[in-house]
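Reminder: ligand-aware prediction takes two inputs, not one.
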Amino acid sequence: MLASLPIAAAGCTFMAWAVRGRASTVFGPGVWRGSGDRRALALTFDDGPSEATPAILEILARHSASATFFMCGANVDRLPEVARHVASAGHEIGNHSYSHPYLFLKTPAGIRGDLTRAQETIATHTGLEPRWLRAPFGVRWFGLRRAQHELGLTSVMWTTIGYDWKLGADEVAARMATHAANGSILCLHDGRELRVKPDIGGTVEAVRRLVPVLLDQGYRFETVSQLLCPTNSPSAC
Ligand SMILES: [Zn+2]
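Here is what comes back for the chain with zinc ion:
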């Protein structure tokens, strides 16, 4: 009995990594960074659109910086004009589920249904069909692989996450600037799950400080598709 404890512990450790590990592809194909060959990175935002998303769009426009917004379908339904603004500004839109659930322990049909609803909502309101998925909370589970396959989605985790829902703008910007590297996928949040009028002032301020610093470091801001598929050839990504 005692001898089985380390095995059980190892099993738990493996499952924790499989579900949340950025490099895990146990539950479906995924990536967490781009090539290190080019001085480029991808700024990504989860949980939008929100009432504060336009403030981030304004900063990005000022610096001619592209980004990728992983949107929740429910937020797109609530603020379709903001979602269209993101699209018309030339940014990429990814799928961040419809209702922002933990996929952990959800049924395959439940996972597929939520992601499909998000995919359809985003396409209806913006005309764009996402090809990238960011699982809510970075949590993946059984059934996701099939849903991804059916919807043509590849999971995108992150190289560095900002913890912008709890850290101050200074800390977030410094953390991102310090960890940035060629091919980095940086994760921030232009919403807070499905909250109406979320306070993302700290995130906006962090973006305001971070973007010029990264430009000074020589980075080019690319969408996830540009970062991962620079030649736009399926074989390259
Ligand atoms: Zn989220």
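The beta strands are 30-31, 40-48, 68-71, 92-95, 132-133, 154-156, 160-161, 185-189, 220-221. The radius of gyration is 18 Å. We will return to this case in the review session.
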